[in-house]
Write a structure and sequence with these properties.
The complex is a heterodimer of chains A (307) and B (431). Chain A has 307 residues and is α/β, with parallel strands linked by helices. Chain A has 2 domains: 15-198 and 298-304, Rossmann fold, CATH 3.40.50; 212-291, no CATH class. Chain A has 9 helices and 10 strands. Chain B has 3 domains: 4-213, P-loop containing nucleotide triphosphate hydrolases (Rossmann fold), CATH 3.40.50; 224-317, Elongation Factor Tu (Ef-tu), domain 3, CATH 2.40.30; 324-428, Translation factors (Elongation Factor Tu (Ef-tu), domain 3). The mean pLDDT of chain B is 90. In chain B, the strands form 4 sheets. A 6-stranded mixed beta sheet of chain B has the order 2-3-1-4-5-6, with helices on both faces. Chain B has a 6-stranded antiparallel barrel with strand order 7-9-15-12-11-16. Chain B has a 6-stranded antiparallel β-barrel with strand order 17-21-19-18-22-23. The chains are: A alpha/beta (307), B alpha+beta (431).
Amino acid sequence: MTITANAPTQARRSVLDALEAESIHIIREVLAEFENPGLLFSGGKDSVVVLHLLAKAVFPARVPIPVVHIDTGHNFGEVLKFRDQVVARYGLNLVVGSVQDYIDRGELTELADGTRNRLQTRVLLDTIEANRFDVVFGGARRDEDKARAKERILSLRDEFGVWDPRNQRPEIWSLYNGRHAPGGHVRAFPISNWTERDIWAYIEQEQIELPPIYFAHKRQVFERDGMWRAVTSVSQPAKGEIVSIRQVRYRTVGDASCTGAVLSAADTVPKVLDELALATLTERGATRADDRISAAGMEDRKTEGYF
Amino acid sequence: MTTTLLRIATAGSVDDGKSTLVGRLLHDAKAILADSLDDIARTSAERGFGGETPALDLALVTDGLRAEREQGITIDVAYRYFSTQNRSFILADCPGHVQYTRNTVTGASTADAAIVLVDARHGVLEQTRRHLGVLALLRVPQLVVAVNKMDLVGWDEQRFSDIETDILQIAAGLGITQSAVIPVSALNGDNIVDASSLSDWYAGPTLLGLLESLEPGSGQGAGRLDVQYVIRPQGALAAGLDAEEYRDFRGYAGTLVDGRLSVGDSVAILSNGQPASSRIKAIRTPAGMVETALAGAAVVVQLSEEIDIARGDTIIAGELDAAVREIEANICVLAPAKLTAGQQLLIKHGTKVAKAKIQSLDHVINVADFSRSAATELNLNDLARVTVRSSAALAVSEYQDSRTAGSFLLIDPSSGQTLAAGIIEAQNAAA
């Protein structure tokens, strides 16, 4: 069967077609212009979509670069299992940077609040250096956060991994320039222009598989700061916080010590899309304790080298 | 129903109420969720916004970086997203004060439409002329001028009409053909999303209504593919594919920047500066094999002849116009660096990177009135007409015919910085 893309009757390209084409263009530019790329892959929906686009960009060849997971040691078991299935299905090389190993060796100290998102930065930068990646793809989107709204598609990092938001390289037309100083590297964000809803609509269109925790399931949770936190070995209720079994799902998949669930009955992708149409909270506001610390939470972590 | 994507850019300064306008647009289009609104309400209250009648300071919506919040300025282009029933918008919010040329060029380079703000009390200023000039140079297809703060001139029809006349006259002088002027109050939300009862005399659309009705730009002209990446899987085939079927697969991956390509089309190829020809054997898009692909599609093309094609080469439907080494272009200096004639540079055109130099620096352009003056060096934010000479033959178009084939970057070979953006005005056939 042959399908005619953009037949005259549908000459107006759909939003997803346009976003997909832009992302594939960016991915191909990066694969062609850099020596040694890697893909940051958490098993979260955004990195899963980037991997899907990467596979399309090089089809029928195999994805030619390794995937990199910075494992905080607090990940959801379901997500790690999913990660390993995906790695096997695509025949990928997996590079893991382990925050737990750094803590065990005494090179990183556990933070007082027990969260590990911030500890990832050091491990990420070391992993990039050890593997000599000159560029890593990430699934960050500009609609996630106000600091990310100013992020470039190709974002330069110096030898310390530092992002300098006041001195960014202009990106004009679709002419990307990834030249960078020796010792520095580049972060490439091919889905910068996608919104949370675009991601889910694309997951629906492409029938992309996700870790099960993105869909409604019953879980032991307790309420903290207006978020539903799972009861796990790293996330325990404090005195007075009441544990109950609720039907929840996750909008983002991060470190279990700081990622919250939302009450939801959405157990399929179309139901998630319906739910998003009525959502009143932003994705990070609803589910990330670390972004609630201050208005500049993400900006501060990004300038340190966070992804 | 198919929703379409429209890219828009804003130009104007905080004083014109640009941040408030963007905030109002996002707010009234219901693109701001409750937790963000709570933050805005809290900060508005802390700062006592609205005085006696506390109100939301919607300009806070566009606050980004810490320094911007502290200094009450915007530093860099920020991207915002909102959608209506049948359209998604990507809005490049370009600061008006700091490095306005560089930022406006960045935002406008991909925009289907640009919104310029004018303060109704002040009318057309020098800055307005500059913004219009940059947008004209970049040939943004549709210009929308929002005459803001109409509440502060009592919704005076004559005042609006005078400003509208001024703008249309300047736009015509700059060669801008598609333009609309709308009276608004971003502060109060008049004519942004909902039509205002205060402007009975205005029969045109609201700002959002207009943005919803515009047609996104599409690449016209001959089908053109700048080869980004050659796909030869050999042993490294994607999982689950038949090794026999793809044994000798060789595909040229790239974005179809203009026109269309169909299976069976005869194509001209510029490969490493040498012309060649072949025929399209197969086209794959992300959705699968197709007979025809249109501008904007990310494709993989297979040809019927084995030709040595690499990244940087160009595949064009039909005949190849002369490939050239010399181009006349308007350039905008984007980096804090001096540019002079004779300086060694790199040019990036499409997917081709080649050594280049500025052959001659013809004149500097005053963007407010397009007047010319002589110069021996160029600095940040300067616009100038230059002749660029490339070490490799390039298959260029004039920018008015193709935003992609008619544009390039100039790069510093030692630092790797992007020094300038170039808009091709003419090509010199003489090699």
